[in-house]
Amino acid sequence: MRGVVEVEELVKEFRTFERREGLFGAIRDLFSRQYRNRRAVDRISFRIGRGEMVGYIGPNGAGKSTTIKMLTGILVPTSGRILANGFVPWRERTRYTQTIGVVFGQRTQLWWDIAVVESFQLLKKIYEVSESDYRARMKHFDEILELGRYLHTPVRKLSLGERMRCDVAAALLHNPPLVFLDEPTIGLDIVAKEHIREFLREVNRNYGTTMLLTTHDLSDIEELCARLMILDHGRLLFDGGLADLKNRFWREAAVRLYLKDREQGQRLSQLNLHGIGCEKLEELVWRLHFAREEWTAAEVIRRVVNAVEVRDIAIEEQSIEEVVKRIYLGEVLEESRR
């Protein structure tokens, strides 16, 4: 079955000029220059189905923005194939851009010196949105994003959170079937982030809009996306669900014990817990950590409660931030090469 976005063996290389050091090096550069090819995206392939909300993450320099620029038609790939909404983005860019929405967290698509509502009206004409659709969508935007309070304010006078709400609404004004979101909640407070997340969920639920989200805020991924793609050094390392990510790269689990009294702590420290680490957090709170491949939480708990009296037990879940941190540190890249 054909996807909304199809990417096959995508490669993007940049030719960069390498300057020599010192005055003599600068003189040599005038007559003979040295260039180096840098591969920003390295033969990645994926398919995104209709209505999916997909997170696309990786450390700085991984190739995320380069991929998005190729998917939106801004850059031409060195090699490979892209088909999005039935178009080859860089070949049919004028027609293609009518079918997508784009939000860049650091850049606005609104006109800086005019009122927000005037920017919306200009976009309405550009995308040929009917008056009835325009009114219905603006009413919907106001219900969730509360745009009505600053529609008549010039964009340059808006706070970052207010401007981001307007930018997200502007990208979806023509109801595109495919939306690219690059850091849509960057720099926003908790309330503003939740407004934007709720709006994106609502649009996806009501219209089946396909969304590709790049962000460094992993709470956006957990709140919005059922699927995650991870890029590192231009290579696609992982493509799957959040649960699959933890199962694949979460090597250690932990159990927190709340003991009955101090005597139980002495008993616990004297147990022969081969392969299980024991850490005292507070006088009556201890943490046991163990390799998931060797032990299950149930086995660890059963072994301990037979020897120690406890008031309560909590199984600690590793956060998505911890898993992705290992990727940023290069650990996952090493594992993928084994």
Structure description:
This protein is an alpha/beta fold. The chain folds into two domains: 5-247, P-loop containing nucleotide triphosphate hydrolases (Rossmann fold, 3-Layer(aba) Sandwich), CATH 3.40.50; 251-317, Alpha-Beta Plaits. The protein has helices at 22-31, 64-71, 93-97, 116-126, 131-145, 160-171, 190-207, 218-224, 242-249, 262-270, 297-305, 320-328, 331-337, and strands spanning 5-18, 34-48, 53-57, 79-84, 100-104, 178-182, 210-214, 227-232, 235-241, 252-259, 276-280, 285-291, 310-316. The mean pLDDT is 86.
Tell the overall outline: globular
The CATH architecture name of the largest domain reads: 3-Layer(aba) Sandwich
Query: Treating each run of at least 4 consecutive H or I residues as one helix, how many helices?
Result: 13
Structural class: alpha/beta
Low-confidence stretches: none
Helix-strand sequence: EHEEHEHEHHHEHEHEEHEHEEHEHH
Number of strands: 13
Please bin the fraction of helical residues: 25-40%
Distance between the termini: 33 Å
The percent range for strand residues is 25-35%
Average pLDDT level: 86
How do the helices and strands line up, and which of them pair or pack?
Layout: E1 5-18, H1 22-31, E2 34-48, E3 53-57, H2 64-71, E4 79-84, H3 93-97, E5 100-104, H4 116-126, H5 131-145, H6 160-171, E6 178-182, H7 190-207, E7 210-214, H8 218-224, E8 227-232, E9 235-241, H9 242-249, E10 252-259, H10 262-270, E11 276-280, E12 285-291, H11 297-305, E13 310-316, H12 320-328, H13 331-337
Parallel strand pairs: 3-7, 3-8, 5-6, 6-7
Antiparallel strand pairs: 1-2, 1-4, 8-9, 10-12, 10-13, 11-12
Helix pairs in contact: 6-7
